Amino acid sequence: MIRVENVTYGYGNALALKDISFSEKEPEIIAIWGRNGAGKTTLMKLLAGHERPDKGIVEILGMAPYNHPEAVQHVCYMQEDHPFSSIWNVRDALRIASYYYANWDEDLAQRLLKTFQLNERKRISKLSKGMKSALQFIIGLSSHAEITILDEPSNGLDASMRKKMNQSLRESHEMHPRLILLSTHHIEEIQTLCESLIVIHDKKVLMQESIDDIREHGVWLAGEKVKVERILKGQKPLEVSRLGSNMKVMMDVPYNDEWRELASSHGLSIEKAKLQDYLLNKTEEAV
Ligand SMILES: Nc1ncnc2c1ncn2[C@@H]1O[C@H](COP(=O)(O)OP(=O)(O)OP(=O)(O)O)[C@@H](O)[C@H]1O
């Protein structure tokens, strides 16, 4: 459904993406994670046809989206701070979206308005940051576009609203499978929602794997320093913390029976590292 092959893109002389490749054939929910400035938004703009790659191929549904109305009619791209007209209220934005998106689901839009307690008569310029994110999310989800791209949809939303967002996304995707690509800094919260994860780092795709495979990785081992060092056998841990004669290390290994038995035979405790901490360390390591 989407293909990015050897794509390079820069703003003037400043490279934002360097020779990146990935593809997705299934209508899955894909998360894009990366540190600030990693290139997530740039990648989304290329997929939405807002920019043209300097080098390489970007395709959605087999078509290059830049300057291609037939291709972009299958795409709904909700930018982080979507530029709505300053005179519109919520109802205007939904009405215009309903004309624009061929598969628009008005019932869903109305349900989501209630879920997020958005007043249709309210001017968009008067919405809080979280309320504006909610509106963008409502449009993104109700568009039912075959390729839906949501840049930081939970930006500014509190934990309860983020939970509602994830629930709505899951339900809507189950009923109408489509490719939903979303960027996030809250990877812990959406890991049960998405099927695969793309990690962008230093202008490149560092990982593209199923979320289950990535979640397996990252293990904390803790215990006496000498015992930890014995198990490390010279390998470099992702993170180290020391307390007196004890040591705790994060290893880039799977949390499986083999490692649980190894830890136990060395007299060490073992626990799964949080995905967010694992990814932070992986992107630290890759610098
Ligand atoms: N309009 C622009 N002009 C010049 N440089 C830009 C522009 N937009 C982005 N960049 C640069 O391109 C790089 C990638 O930016 P991008 O916005 O794609 O990152 P991001 O991963 O979405 O970041 P964040 O998580 O902070 O939103 C950064 O170095 C950024 O400074």
From TrEMBL:
Keyword Nucleotide-binding: yes
Gene Ontology molecular function, alphabetical: ATP binding; ATP hydrolysis activity
Keyword annotations: ATP-binding, Nucleotide-binding, Transport
Cross-referenced InterPro entries: AAA+_ATPase (IPR003593), ABC_transporter-like_ATP-bd (IPR003439), ABC_transporter-like_CS (IPR017871), ABC_Transporter_VariousFunc (IPR051782), P-loop_NTPase (IPR027417)
SUPFAM superfamilies: P-loop containing nucleoside triphosphate hydrolases
Transport keyword on record: yes
Pfam families assigned: ABC_tran (PF00005)
Residues annotated as domain ABC transporter: 2-227
This protein's name: ABC transporter ATP-binding protein
Originating organism: Pradoshia eiseniae
